[in-house]
Amino acid sequence: GENVEQHPSTLSVQEGDSAVIKCTYSDSASNYFPWYKQELGKGPQLIIDIRSNVGEKKDQRIAVTLNKTAKHFSLHITETQPEDSAVYFCAADDNTDKLIFGTGTRLQVFP
Amino acid sequence: DADVTQTPRNRITKTGKRIMLECSQTKGHDRMYWYRQDPGLGLRLIYYSFDVKDINKGEISDGYSVSRQAQAKFSLSLESAIPNQTALYFCATSDVAGTSTDTQYFGPGTRLTVL
């Protein structure tokens, strides 16, 4: 079955710097790759997703890239702000409409 | 009002007790899920239901059971709670998007502590 690995587990950046979180997946049949943000005391919330027919997608300061050949995808946050501090999860579908989640990255943005 | 609600938000119980966690949604989605979150382990699927008559085991279903009372309600039960079931539990819903996986919407979570 699908397995998703996520790195790093923690990431600290200075406000204004960029942050990159990377994930790899094992099932070449996967074709949907969402990213979720979990703020303290709340449930995860979708921030961006990408499907296998595109290589990159942007939404303001966040972007996701997908390399299907290498089976990895990444989240890029530019011009980080303190409110970007949260836990981020990547996920991949397992071809039966379920999501397999990575282990999460705790991002801290220092002013 | 929140689209996905979970009750209770916090619960402390003792080993061997039966516990029910409830989830309700107003999004009109057919698909509902129960996940468990542990530090360093991410979100792991316990059970899922693609419609009222459909119940499926997830990755870590041992020690848990579920009931889909209606399209809007999906409950998770721990028949005899044990300390290693101490965790944060999330309910989620999603719509059917043709043959494609779609966005999952999460509730606020239930923090369960088993002493």
Furnish the topology, listing elements before pairings.
The complex is a heterodimer of chains A (111) and B (115).
Chain A: E1 4-7, E2 10-14, E3 19-25, E4 32-38, E5 45-51, E6 56-59, E7 62-67, E8 72-77, E9 86-93, E10 99-101, E11 105-110
Parallel strand pairs in A: 2-11
Antiparallel strand pairs in A: 1-3, 3-8, 4-5, 4-9, 6-7, 7-8, 9-10, 9-11
Chain B: E1 4-7, E2 10-13, E3 19-25, E4 31-38, E5 42-51, E6 54-57, E7 65-70, E8 73-78, E9 87-94, E10 104-106, E11 110-114
Parallel strand pairs in B: 2-11
Antiparallel strand pairs in B: 1-3, 3-8, 4-5, 4-9, 5-6, 7-8, 9-10, 9-11
Could you explain the architecture of this structure?
- The complex is a heterodimer of chains A (about 110) and B (about 120).
- Chain A has about 110 residues and is an all-beta fold.
- Chain A is about 0% helix and about 55% strand.
- With about 120 residues, chain B is an all-beta fold.
- Chain B has no helices and 11 strands.
- In chain B, strand 4 and strand 5 (about 40-50) form a beta hairpin.
Concise account of the structure shown:
Chain A is mainly beta and 111 residues long.
Features:
heterodimer; A: 111 residues; mainly beta; six-stranded mixed beta sheet; five-stranded antiparallel beta sheet; 0% helix; globular; B: 115 residues; seven-stranded mixed beta sheet; four-stranded antiparallel beta sheet
Largest sheet of chain B: 7 strands, mixed
- Report the biggest beta sheet of chain A as strand number plus sense, adding barrel if it closes: 6 strands, mixed
Q: How many DSSP E strands of chain B? A: 11
Radius of gyration of chain A, in angstroms, nearest whole number: 13 Å
- The structural class of chain A is mainly beta
Shape of chain A: globular
Helix content of chain B: under 10%
Summed up, the helix count of chain B is 0
**Low-confidence runs of chain A (pLDDT<50, min 5 residues)?**
none
Shape of chain B: globular
**In what range is the share of β-strand residues of chain B?**
over 45%
**Intertermini distance of chain B:** 33 Å
Mean pLDDT reading of chain A = 95
The fraction of residues in strands of chain A falls at over 45%
Give the averaged pLDDT of chain B, no decimals. 93
Largest interface: A-B, 23 and 24 residues
Instruction: Tell how many strands the DSSP assignment of chain A holds.
Output: 11
Give the low-pLDDT segments of chain B: none
Cα end-to-end separation of chain A? 41 Å
